[in-house]
From TrEMBL:
This is NADPH-dependent oxidoreductase. Pfam families: Nitroreductase. InterPro entries: Flavin_OxRdtase_Frp, Nitroreductase, Nitroreductase-like. It comes from the Bacteria. SUPFAM superfamilies: FMN-dependent nitroreductase-like. Gene3D superfamilies: NADH Oxidase (3.40.109.10). It comes from Halarcobacter anaerophilus. One of its GO terms (molecular function) is oxidoreductase activity. Keywords: Flavoprotein, FMN, NADP, Oxidoreductase. PANTHER family: OXYGEN-INSENSITIVE NADPH NITROREDUCTASE. Belongs to the flavin oxidoreductase frp family. The lineage of its organism: Bacteria, Pseudomonadati, Campylobacterota, Epsilonproteobacteria, Campylobacterales. Residues 9-163 form the Nitroreductase domain.
Amino acid sequence: MNHIIKQLSSRKSIRQFTGENVKSEDLELIIRTAQRCPTSINGQQISLVYTKDKATIKKIAELCGGQPQIATSDVFITIVVDFNRTAFAVEQAGETQLIEKSAEGVLVGAVDAGIMLNAIQVAAESLGYGTTAIGAIRSAPESMIKLLGLPPQTFPIVATTIGVPTKEALEAPLKPRVPINSFSFEDTYSDIKVKDGVIAYEKQMKQFREDHNMDYLQSYCEQTANYYKNIYSRKIAKNYKSQGFEFKD
């Protein structure tokens, strides 16, 4: 097993940090490395806003519902969908940009942001740091937009923490995943396998909870229902629109 496969196979979210600093040269390397990830049409419609300022990180943690894994991280990187950059490029070619007025544009931005998130985390983890993806910035998009000084045609879509993991966090067991045959299909999707996989995984997660004395841990179905029975980020459309985005064909 090569080191990349080994790293990805043992990947987990790290929510406890020692408080040690992420080295400046490491942060620069992480960002430069992540910038090489692919973007749609090479439009590079992603920008990063990072902060090491503890007061700002604390403010972001509050906006995200008081998450301690944010407040105790050493670096917080917000991944921004940036059609402001491409609008200027289109203007330089003598045209007017329309992509942010479409459903396709919203999806392009979201997909590219997800690719960037993974690239940042893989790079950081390869250097021994821990990370956690943070979607809760979308709970207060207007405040995040103001805090980060974002112009129209941009949107803060997801973020990641980076920090030095504690020994306890590193030694925490890996959570199982849904059965591989309910996740990956050859040629055609199987609804039956997906649903059978949910039932099997529910049992597996309950056993995992018992084996590791994690009474606080919800099962897969419990946790998914807890989130997806509601629309838990309700200001997305309003703030997308105020930033100049639309969702139409």
